[in-house]
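Whether sequence alone determines local backbone shape is best considered at the level of individual chains. The sequence in question and its structure tokens are set out directly beneath this paragraph.

***
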Amino acid sequence: MTWLVTGGAGYIGAHVVRAFTEQGMSVVVLDDLSSGHTTFLPESVPFVRGSILDSALVESTLLDHAVTGVVHIAGFKYAGVSVERPLHTYAQNVTGTLVLLEAMAAVGVSRIVFSSSAAVYGTPDTDLVTEATPKSPQSPYGESKLIGEWLLADQGVAAGLAHTSLRYFNVVGSGYPDVYDTSPHNLFPLIFEALLTGRTPRIYGTDYPTPDGTCVRDYIHVADLAHSHVAAARRLDAGDPIEPVYNLGSGDGVSVGEIMTAVRDVTGIDFTPELADRRAGDPARIVASGDLAARDLDWSMRHTLAEMVDSAYRARANAATTRR
């Protein structure tokens, strides 16, 4: 049995690919390299360069590699930018998922693990988000992920598609010294880029109703995330009961201020963050329960905040050294 990982050359995707291979499971990667890197992939993993919007390529990839299941990670993942580029976001995330599902149906592939997002919740009016929390996405990105979940559910009814969607917030850390988060929008890369270029990281808002006045979010280690993707795929392969959605959440969250302190302690770089006004639309606290995923997908927070920071910084610093 072979699993196709769309977006498998990206930061999250490459961790999922390596988790599969380490469990002895066969994978093939489809990625257009818009944000991915072939250097993140093991040489033994077949790689197909192209877009999930290319229906002929998707279908031929499924057939040529005898694919039996798909982990769908490819997509446009920048919530803030999606407000400025809604049509691009919908094309990549909605049309792309539709094309993929059509290709799967055409060749008889009936299992999929979908990389969704906690952005489907928007700004929930609760201290702890569960799978039953009302969905109210506040960006085209969040809306596109929710539509993707609907597509899977409808195809499940219509064609018996076996599926599950994994929702998560902020993915950090690194499981390997040669794979790191290259996003220009995520907090950890922004902090490290500032420190490595002699600038000072910035905190937006210090007057929130939280213990230290800064925003509290879920931060989960990418290797833990990848592990549960494999667990979900194994469950689908075995035909075991599976929920349509799972939150991969920490249950308690970490503040931006705590992250800055951890970065200073772990890296040994002494700095005092610049303080700036709140950004519009940033809620004080969003934290999710991972209880359901812990029950079914062997989900747990296996890494401390210090380990998340250390692994992420080492991988990013290693990349900076390698490029010289």
The radius of gyration is 19 Å.
